[in-house]
Design a protein that fits this description.
The structure is a single chain. The chain is mainly β. It contains 3 helices and 18 strands. The protein has helices spanning 77-80, 187-191, 259-265, and strands at 7-13, 16-26, 41-42, 51-56, 59-66, 71-74, 87-91, 103-112, 117-118, 123-124, 128-132, 158-163, 178-184, 203-207, 221-225, 231-239, 250-254, 271-273. The strands form 4 sheets. It has a 6-stranded antiparallel barrel. Strand 4 and strand 5 form a beta hairpin. Residues 37-267 form the Peptidase S1 domain. This is Peptidase S1 domain-containing protein. GO terms for molecular function: serine-type endopeptidase activity.
Length: 274
């Protein structure tokens, strides 16, 4: 059984002292009890319990990951041109046709990175934090993801993307959560791809033949399993050309470059132990 023992502690930083409630849950722990993803396979239900679906007008819009009990980490482009008041967040979801025990939340606020920019091809500083109108309670099926250390490098690590996005170009979204494993490329290999002219240092590339994220997976997490058995979010699904096109790796926002910004905008949320 998942239990939470809450305490109050002082969070000191960013020039202010904030009272935050902490839990004895652990972030990034996959639940073994229980992006369009192209070339993916069915995830064990609730095995990635931080993953959320963001629907707009009852249709799959973007993905995201719980990082506190009231904050979702996602992509800036998911909100830049769309009204978040038309969106709903599904938490603890596995199958879109089975919403039993799924928590649904509206969004009360969205902070898009202040340096977000967009061109016809790519988005830069493509990261955002959505605040839920009401917090969730952590349980077996709802666990926040761990954040990486500032500047942490994941070159040549195997990353996992998860989502309910389209399973191919011109194909429909998946009803069940899919996952796919990708190799995270070095910055050098990324710059040697045909995307080089569009890349910035705050972006990372990942690729495996026949696998990719697609429309609807935007904003979802790129996860890396650490040796101690917990996942950290290394990236946010950002942009790409086509889906699983071997000429173009998928591009992700480097979460480790934004840790201070993330903590600044989620200071009033409850976190799990790392």
């Amino acid at each position: 059984m998942f239990t939470i023992l809450s305490t109050i502690y002082l969070l000191i930083g960013l020039g202010q002292v904030v009272l935050v409630r902490s839990s004895e849950c652990q972030c990034g722990r996959p639940n073994v009890m229980s992006m369009r993803i192209v070339g993916g396979r069915r995830a064990v239900p609730h095995s990635f319990p931080w993953t959320v679906a963001i629907l707009k007008n009852d249709r799959m819009h973007c993905g995201g990951a719980m990082i506190t009990n009231k904050h979702v980490l996602s992509a800036g482009h998911c909100f830049k041109w769309d009204n978040f008041l038309t969106m709903e967040v599904f938490i603890g979801l596995d199958n879109l046709d089975d919403l039993k025990n799924v928590e649904k939340r509206n969004i009360s606020n969205v902070v898009i990175h202040e340096l977000f920019t967009s061109t016809a091809v790519r988005d830069e500083n493509d990261i955002a934090i959505a605040t839920l109108h009401q917090p969730v309670v952590f349980n077996d099926n709802i666990v926040p993801i761990c954040l990486p250390n500032p500047g942490e490098d994941f070159t040549n690590r195997i990353g996992t993307i998860v989502g309910w996005g389209r399973i191919g170009v011109e194909k429909s979204s998946s009803k069940v959560l899919l996952k796919a494993s990708l190799r995270i490329l070095s910055d050098e290999d990324c710059m040697n791809s045909q995307l080089a002219q569009h890349l910035k240092p705050t972006m990372m590339c990942a690729f495996s033949k026949g696998k990719d994220g697609c429309q609807g997976d935007s904003g979802g997490p790129l996860l890396v399993l650490q040796p101690e058995g917990k996942y950290v979010q290394s990236g946010v699904v950002s942009w790409g050309i086509g889906c699983a096109d071997p000429r173009y790796p998928g591009v992700y926002t480097k979460v480790s470059d934004y840790i201070a910004w993330i903590l600044q905008h989620t200071a009033d949320g409850a976190r799990c132990n790392s």
